[in-house]
Structures are given as C-alpha cells and as structure tokens.
Amino acid sequence: MNKLDTKTRALILRLLVEGNSIRATTRIADVSKNTVTKLLKDAGKACAAYHDGHVRGVKASHVQADEIWSFCYAKERNVAEAKAAPADAGDIWTWTAMDRDSKLMISYTVGDRSAATAREFMFDLADRLATRVQLTTDGHGAYLKAVADAFSGEVDYAMLIKQYGDPTGTKGHERKYSPAECTGTIKEAIFGKPDMAQVGTSHLERQNLTMRMGMRRFTRLTNAFSKKAENHAYAVALHFMHYNFCRTHKTLRMTPAMAAGVTDRLWDVEDLVALVEAAELAPKKRGPYKKRNQARG
Predict the structure, then answer these.
(1) CATH classification of 6-274, choosing from 3.30.70.1660, 3.40.50.300, 3.30.420.10, 3.30.70.2190?
(2) Highest taxon of the source (predicted)?
(3) Were both Cys, which of 103, 170, 209, 223 would link to 175 (CB 3.0–4.6 Å)?
C-alpha cells in the first residue's frame, strides 16, 4: 500500500486547519478525496487521544463554556425529506470550555444539545481542572444540573442570559440570513460566590468565530457541511489540537498550551503528523478469540 510522506501529510493537515474544504485540499495537494478523508480520520483520532491524555491538571481561574451549532448531512427540519439520510443526520452541537486567561480550549464534546450531553461535557471539564474556578455559561437550562453534579458545588458558577430580538433595519432576504440581535443581558449567580464583574462569555464567543473560519464545515451558507458526524468530530479534534499547540495567539505571543503550562514549546504541523505516525506504529489490540465449532456433521 502506498504511504504518504511526512511532507505531503503536513501539507494536507495545514490546508485543513486553515479552513479549506476536503475537495479544495485534494486539488491543492494533488491527492484523492479518500486520501484526505483517511488522514483526517487518523489525525482526528490521534489528536483526540493526545488531548485526552495531556490536557489535564489545568490551573485556571475563569472558565467560559458555550455551544456552537452546525449540522450533519441536512438541517434538522429537512432530515425527514432528505434522501438516504443517515441516523446521525441533523443538528450537531460542539460544546466548548475555554480558560479565559490562557485561551486554552480545556474541554470539548460533540453531540446534541440534550441534558445527557451537557452532563458528559461538564464531567469531562471538571476532571481536567486542578483548581476551583469561576465558571460562566449561557442560559441553557441543561447546564444547571450538569454543573451541580460534575463539580459538587466546588465552583463559583454564574449564567449570562442573553435576550434577543429581530435584527433592525433589515428586510426580505437580508433579514433571513441575519443573526438575531442581542438586545440585553442578565447576569445571574447560580451557586458559589462568583464575581459578577467577571461574568462573561465574550472570549469564547470570539473563539466561535475562529472555529467557523478555521473549519470549512462550520462555515455558513456553503456546501462544505459535514456529511458524517464521525468525520465532523475528527475535524473538531484536529482543529483544537492545532489551536492549542500550534497556533500562536496574537495577544499572548505564545500558544494557549504554552500559556497554560501544558507544554513548554511551540508545536508545528509536523508534530501532528508525528502523532499520526506514532499511532500507526503502535501495536494493534487483538479482538476477542472465538473458538471454532469442533462439532462435525
């Protein structure tokens, strides 16, 4: 089997994390679509495993959490009429939690917007923190029990509840594609002793823009949306690994992982390729042994 060299792999990953679609990447790198998709899967798995094992014991003071919407195969309202829609078609949400000061993406979860996913997300976040934090989320009701169960009260938690209205000064198609206008916010302390002057999600909302610009499948009004939820999750894992370890933050003048003390050096895309190659060399786990049926007819 032909194996891509490190330089070509690095080029493909660099194109993907800079907001190119799968097909655009195939044209620029002069490789097949299957080659790009397979590398995305391999890199996504390797990046998710590295994040899971190394982004732990994070010493943070202020954490902001939010969810960002996208869809797989078809939007939720169109799934019923979609041709050959897979079981995971429809709206898909990426839950994110970021350290406000280091800009480190501490935890992320891809799923629906249910209470079960909120619980999974918050337990993962709590498990990665080494200090008591002030946590701010939006007003999504699923957070209430999830935060209480995951942190057992050892957190200063507040909600920033936003009020929305129709965009002003827009008509017809302009109004259709314009986001709702935020007309006001309400800060509400939930439990602990949050500093209400520090309650906010603006840093994470700016990160939402970075996600939409850095992952083509998140860009609105394109045909580059995800066709498989599994590949969507791999793209998210690759994006956050690159964001945390490879991308120098303009204000911090270092990567978020360096600012948070998770690593002491600046990574490059070649380091991500090295994770993929190391996973390929790792011994494969054998499946369960099945005894042959010795009975003879």
Answers:
(1) 3.30.420.10
(2) Bacteria
(3) 170
Rounded CA separation 236/240 (Å): 6
Domain positions in the chain are 6-274
**Taking 80 as the threshold, does the pLDDT of residue 242 lie above it?**
yes
List the beta bridge partners of residue 184: 163
Provide the 8-state DSSP code for 215. Answer: -
Distance of CA 174 to the CA centre of its chain: 29
Q: For residues 178 and 267, give the distance between their C-alpha atoms in angstroms, rounded to a whole number.
A: 38
What distance in Å separates the CA atoms of residue 129 and residue 60, rounded to the nearest whole number?
A: 7
Residue 85 corresponds to which amino acid? A
User: pLDDT-derived band of residue 297, with 50, 70 and 90 as boundaries?
Assistant: very low
Residue 163: the pLDDT is 74
